[in-house]
Amino acid sequence: MKNKVKILEVQNVSIAVVSSNNEDDYICITDIAKTKESDSRAADIIKNWIRNRATLEFLGTWEQMYNPNFKVVEFDHFKMQAGLPSFVLSPGTWAEKTNAIGIYVKLGKYGGTFAHKDITLEFCSAVNPIFKLFLIKEFQRLKEEENSNKKLEWNLQRTISKINYKIHTDAIKENLIPISLTANQKNFIYADEADILNVALFGKTAKEWRNENPNEKGNIRDTATIEQLVVLSNLESINAMLIQQEIVQQERLIKLNEIAISQMKSLINTNTLGKLK
Protein backbone atom coordinates (compact mmCIF):
# COMPACT_ATOMS: atom_id res chain seq x y z
CA MET A 1 0.00 0.00 0.00
CA LYS A 2 1.49 3.30 -1.09
CA ASN A 3 1.34 6.09 1.46
CA LYS A 4 1.73 9.79 0.77
CA VAL A 5 3.01 12.20 3.40
CA LYS A 6 1.81 15.79 3.41
CA ILE A 7 2.62 18.56 5.85
CA LEU A 8 -0.08 20.83 7.25
CA GLU A 9 0.91 24.18 8.71
CA VAL A 10 -1.42 24.84 11.64
CA GLN A 11 -0.70 27.94 13.74
CA ASN A 12 2.95 27.83 12.61
CA VAL A 13 3.23 24.17 13.62
CA SER A 14 4.09 21.48 11.04
CA ILE A 15 1.76 18.48 11.27
CA ALA A 16 2.48 15.36 9.20
CA VAL A 17 -0.48 13.66 7.49
CA VAL A 18 -0.23 10.22 5.88
CA SER A 19 -2.81 9.33 3.23
CA SER A 20 -3.09 5.76 1.91
CA ASN A 21 -4.57 4.38 -1.29
CA ASN A 22 -7.84 3.56 0.48
CA GLU A 23 -8.17 7.28 1.30
CA ASP A 24 -7.76 6.87 5.06
CA ASP A 25 -5.89 9.79 6.59
CA TYR A 26 -3.63 9.43 9.62
CA ILE A 27 -2.34 12.51 11.43
CA CYS A 28 0.78 12.70 13.58
CA ILE A 29 -0.42 13.25 17.15
CA THR A 30 3.22 13.47 18.25
CA ASP A 31 3.42 16.77 16.34
CA ILE A 32 0.22 17.91 18.07
CA ALA A 33 1.55 16.92 21.52
CA LYS A 34 4.56 19.15 20.89
CA THR A 35 2.26 22.18 20.88
CA LYS A 36 1.80 21.69 24.64
CA GLU A 37 5.24 20.50 25.75
CA SER A 38 8.77 20.06 24.46
CA ASP A 39 9.71 17.34 21.97
CA SER A 40 10.99 15.12 24.78
CA ARG A 41 7.64 15.26 26.61
CA ALA A 42 5.40 14.52 23.60
CA ALA A 43 5.60 10.74 24.06
CA ASP A 44 4.63 11.05 27.74
CA ILE A 45 1.58 13.17 26.86
CA ILE A 46 0.38 10.49 24.44
CA LYS A 47 0.97 7.68 26.96
CA ASN A 48 -0.94 9.53 29.68
CA TRP A 49 -3.81 10.13 27.27
CA ILE A 50 -4.07 6.57 25.99
CA ARG A 51 -4.07 5.00 29.47
CA ASN A 52 -7.16 7.00 30.46
CA ARG A 53 -10.35 4.94 30.69
CA ALA A 54 -12.42 7.37 28.62
CA THR A 55 -9.78 7.26 25.89
CA LEU A 56 -9.76 3.46 25.88
CA GLU A 57 -13.56 3.44 25.61
CA PHE A 58 -13.33 5.72 22.60
CA LEU A 59 -10.54 3.75 20.92
CA GLY A 60 -12.27 0.44 21.57
CA THR A 61 -15.56 1.72 20.14
CA TRP A 62 -13.83 3.06 17.03
CA GLU A 63 -12.03 -0.24 16.43
CA GLN A 64 -15.22 -2.28 16.84
CA MET A 65 -16.93 -0.03 14.29
CA TYR A 66 -14.22 -0.23 11.63
CA ASN A 67 -11.89 -3.14 12.41
CA PRO A 68 -13.29 -6.70 12.12
CA ASN A 69 -9.99 -8.14 13.38
CA PHE A 70 -9.93 -6.12 16.60
CA LYS A 71 -9.17 -8.26 19.67
CA VAL A 72 -11.97 -7.38 22.05
CA VAL A 73 -10.70 -9.68 24.82
CA GLU A 74 -7.39 -7.82 24.96
CA PHE A 75 -9.28 -4.53 24.89
CA ASP A 76 -11.39 -5.58 27.89
CA HIS A 77 -8.19 -6.52 29.72
CA PHE A 78 -6.75 -3.04 29.24
CA LYS A 79 -10.06 -1.41 30.18
CA MET A 80 -10.15 -3.30 33.49
CA GLN A 81 -6.69 -1.96 34.38
CA ALA A 82 -7.45 1.64 33.42
CA GLY A 83 -7.36 3.95 36.41
CA LEU A 84 -4.89 1.87 38.39
CA PRO A 85 -1.71 3.76 39.36
CA SER A 86 0.40 0.91 38.02
CA PHE A 87 -1.28 0.84 34.61
CA VAL A 88 1.02 1.93 31.79
CA LEU A 89 0.19 1.75 28.08
CA SER A 90 1.94 2.94 24.94
CA PRO A 91 0.46 3.32 21.44
CA GLY A 92 2.73 0.56 20.17
CA THR A 93 1.58 -1.88 22.83
CA TRP A 94 -2.07 -1.00 22.23
CA ALA A 95 -1.74 -1.65 18.49
CA GLU A 96 0.25 -4.87 18.94
CA LYS A 97 -1.91 -6.49 21.63
CA THR A 98 -5.36 -5.58 20.25
CA ASN A 99 -4.55 -5.66 16.52
CA ALA A 100 -5.77 -2.06 16.38
CA ILE A 101 -5.65 -0.10 13.13
CA GLY A 102 -6.58 3.35 14.42
CA ILE A 103 -3.14 4.14 15.85
CA TYR A 104 0.33 3.14 14.74
CA VAL A 105 3.94 4.17 15.34
CA LYS A 106 6.06 5.22 12.36
CA LEU A 107 9.84 5.23 12.44
CA GLY A 108 12.28 7.22 10.35
CA LYS A 109 11.58 10.44 8.47
CA TYR A 110 8.29 12.05 9.52
CA GLY A 111 8.20 9.49 12.34
CA GLY A 112 5.99 9.54 15.42
CA THR A 113 2.64 8.24 16.61
CA PHE A 114 -0.04 8.54 13.93
CA ALA A 115 -3.79 8.28 14.55
CA HIS A 116 -6.77 8.07 12.23
CA LYS A 117 -8.35 11.49 11.70
CA ASP A 118 -11.32 10.53 13.93
CA ILE A 119 -9.03 9.61 16.81
CA THR A 120 -6.81 12.63 16.24
CA LEU A 121 -9.71 14.94 17.01
CA GLU A 122 -10.40 13.12 20.27
CA PHE A 123 -6.73 13.55 21.18
CA CYS A 124 -6.96 17.27 20.40
CA SER A 125 -10.03 17.59 22.62
CA ALA A 126 -8.01 16.29 25.55
CA VAL A 127 -4.69 17.99 24.85
CA ASN A 128 -5.38 21.26 23.03
CA PRO A 129 -9.06 21.97 22.12
CA ILE A 130 -8.29 25.38 20.62
CA PHE A 131 -5.69 23.85 18.31
CA LYS A 132 -8.36 21.31 17.32
CA LEU A 133 -10.46 24.02 15.68
CA PHE A 134 -7.57 25.26 13.56
CA LEU A 135 -6.61 21.70 12.63
CA ILE A 136 -10.17 21.01 11.43
CA LYS A 137 -10.18 24.08 9.21
CA GLU A 138 -6.74 23.39 7.75
CA PHE A 139 -7.54 19.73 7.16
CA GLN A 140 -10.77 20.65 5.41
CA ARG A 141 -8.79 23.00 3.18
CA LEU A 142 -6.47 20.10 2.30
CA LYS A 143 -9.40 17.84 1.41
CA GLU A 144 -10.97 20.58 -0.70
CA GLU A 145 -7.75 20.84 -2.69
CA GLU A 146 -7.64 17.06 -3.15
CA ASN A 147 -11.26 17.03 -4.31
CA SER A 148 -11.23 20.23 -6.35
CA ASN A 149 -12.82 18.53 -9.36
CA LYS A 150 -15.83 17.18 -7.48
CA LYS A 151 -18.19 18.33 -4.77
CA LEU A 152 -16.78 17.69 -1.32
CA GLU A 153 -19.32 16.04 0.95
CA TRP A 154 -16.92 15.06 3.69
CA ASN A 155 -16.90 16.82 7.05
CA LEU A 156 -14.37 15.94 9.71
CA GLN A 157 -16.45 17.16 12.63
CA ARG A 158 -19.51 15.19 11.48
CA THR A 159 -17.31 12.07 11.30
CA ILE A 160 -16.12 12.39 14.88
CA SER A 161 -19.65 13.16 16.07
CA LYS A 162 -20.87 9.79 14.75
CA ILE A 163 -18.41 7.95 16.98
CA ASN A 164 -19.09 10.17 19.98
CA TYR A 165 -22.81 9.56 19.47
CA LYS A 166 -22.32 5.77 19.64
CA ILE A 167 -20.29 6.09 22.85
CA HIS A 168 -23.01 8.37 24.22
CA THR A 169 -25.88 6.00 23.39
CA ASP A 170 -23.92 2.98 24.67
CA ALA A 171 -23.44 4.74 28.01
CA ILE A 172 -27.17 5.48 28.15
CA LYS A 173 -28.05 1.87 27.30
CA GLU A 174 -25.69 0.40 29.90
CA ASN A 175 -26.50 2.79 32.75
CA LEU A 176 -29.93 4.39 32.32
CA ILE A 177 -32.24 1.94 30.56
CA PRO A 178 -33.92 -0.83 32.62
CA ILE A 179 -34.45 -4.10 30.77
CA SER A 180 -38.24 -3.90 31.21
CA LEU A 181 -38.65 -0.76 29.09
CA THR A 182 -40.35 -0.99 25.71
CA ALA A 183 -38.58 0.07 22.53
CA ASN A 184 -40.57 3.32 22.42
CA GLN A 185 -39.66 4.12 26.02
CA LYS A 186 -35.98 3.49 25.30
CA ASN A 187 -36.12 5.83 22.33
CA PHE A 188 -37.62 8.49 24.59
CA ILE A 189 -34.63 8.25 26.94
CA TYR A 190 -32.18 8.59 24.05
CA ALA A 191 -33.99 11.69 22.80
CA ASP A 192 -34.16 13.08 26.34
CA GLU A 193 -30.40 12.66 26.76
CA ALA A 194 -29.74 14.23 23.36
CA ASP A 195 -31.76 17.25 24.48
CA ILE A 196 -29.55 17.62 27.56
CA LEU A 197 -26.70 18.40 25.17
CA ASN A 198 -28.94 20.72 23.14
CA VAL A 199 -29.99 22.68 26.23
CA ALA A 200 -26.43 22.81 27.59
CA LEU A 201 -25.04 24.21 24.32
CA PHE A 202 -27.92 25.93 22.50
CA GLY A 203 -30.14 26.83 25.47
CA LYS A 204 -33.19 25.02 24.07
CA THR A 205 -34.53 21.58 23.19
CA ALA A 206 -34.87 20.29 19.64
CA LYS A 207 -38.66 20.73 19.86
CA GLU A 208 -38.35 24.32 21.10
CA TRP A 209 -36.01 25.12 18.20
CA ARG A 210 -38.44 23.55 15.72
CA ASN A 211 -41.35 25.59 17.13
CA GLU A 212 -39.28 28.77 16.78
CA ASN A 213 -38.09 27.90 13.26
CA PRO A 214 -40.97 26.16 11.46
CA ASN A 215 -39.65 27.03 7.99
CA GLU A 216 -36.06 25.84 8.56
CA LYS A 217 -34.87 22.57 7.05
CA GLY A 218 -33.03 20.02 9.17
CA ASN A 219 -32.68 20.28 12.93
CA ILE A 220 -31.03 22.45 15.56
CA ARG A 221 -27.62 20.84 15.05
CA ASP A 222 -27.68 21.33 11.28
CA THR A 223 -27.57 25.10 11.85
CA ALA A 224 -24.66 24.92 14.31
CA THR A 225 -21.46 26.86 13.71
CA ILE A 226 -18.10 25.09 13.44
CA GLU A 227 -17.32 26.26 16.98
CA GLN A 228 -20.58 24.78 18.29
CA LEU A 229 -19.92 21.47 16.50
CA VAL A 230 -16.47 21.26 18.10
CA VAL A 231 -17.95 21.84 21.56
CA LEU A 232 -20.84 19.44 20.88
CA SER A 233 -18.49 16.56 20.09
CA ASN A 234 -16.64 17.28 23.32
CA LEU A 235 -19.90 17.37 25.33
CA GLU A 236 -20.99 13.98 23.96
CA SER A 237 -17.83 12.32 25.28
CA ILE A 238 -18.04 14.16 28.61
CA ASN A 239 -21.72 13.28 29.14
CA ALA A 240 -20.98 9.60 28.46
CA MET A 241 -18.31 9.72 31.17
CA LEU A 242 -20.65 11.49 33.63
CA ILE A 243 -23.37 8.88 32.99
CA GLN A 244 -20.90 6.11 33.77
CA GLN A 245 -20.10 7.91 37.02
CA GLU A 246 -23.83 7.73 37.85
CA ILE A 247 -24.22 11.50 38.15
CA VAL A 248 -27.89 12.45 38.04
CA GLN A 249 -29.29 14.21 34.99
CA GLN A 250 -29.83 17.63 36.57
CA GLU A 251 -26.26 17.79 37.88
CA ARG A 252 -24.93 16.67 34.50
CA LEU A 253 -26.88 19.41 32.72
CA ILE A 254 -25.40 22.10 34.99
CA LYS A 255 -21.88 20.74 34.52
CA LEU A 256 -22.25 20.39 30.75
CA ASN A 257 -23.58 23.93 30.46
CA GLU A 258 -20.59 25.28 32.40
CA ILE A 259 -18.21 23.37 30.13
CA ALA A 260 -20.03 24.56 26.99
CA ILE A 261 -19.82 28.20 28.09
CA SER A 262 -16.13 27.88 28.96
CA GLN A 263 -15.18 26.18 25.69
CA MET A 264 -17.23 28.54 23.51
CA LYS A 265 -15.59 31.54 25.20
CA SER A 266 -12.16 30.04 24.54
CA LEU A 267 -12.94 29.49 20.86
CA ILE A 268 -14.64 32.83 20.26
CA ASN A 269 -12.00 34.84 22.14
CA THR A 270 -9.08 33.30 20.26
CA ASN A 271 -7.28 36.23 18.66
CA THR A 272 -6.69 34.54 15.31
CA LEU A 273 -10.18 33.05 15.06
CA GLY A 274 -11.20 35.59 12.46
CA LYS A 275 -8.72 34.09 10.01
CA LEU A 276 -10.82 30.92 9.87
CA LYS A 277 -14.06 32.55 8.73
TrEMBL record:
<dbReference type="InterPro" id="IPR017880">
    <property type="entry name" value="KilA_N"/>
</dbReference>
<feature type="domain" description="KilA-N">
    <location>
        <begin position="4"/>
        <end position="142"/>
    </location>
</feature>
<dbReference type="Pfam" id="PF04383">
    <property type="entry name" value="KilA-N"/>
</dbReference>
<dbReference type="InterPro" id="IPR018004">
    <property type="entry name" value="KilA/APSES_HTH"/>
</dbReference>
<protein>
    <submittedName>
        <fullName>KilA-N domain-containing protein</fullName>
    </submittedName>
</protein>
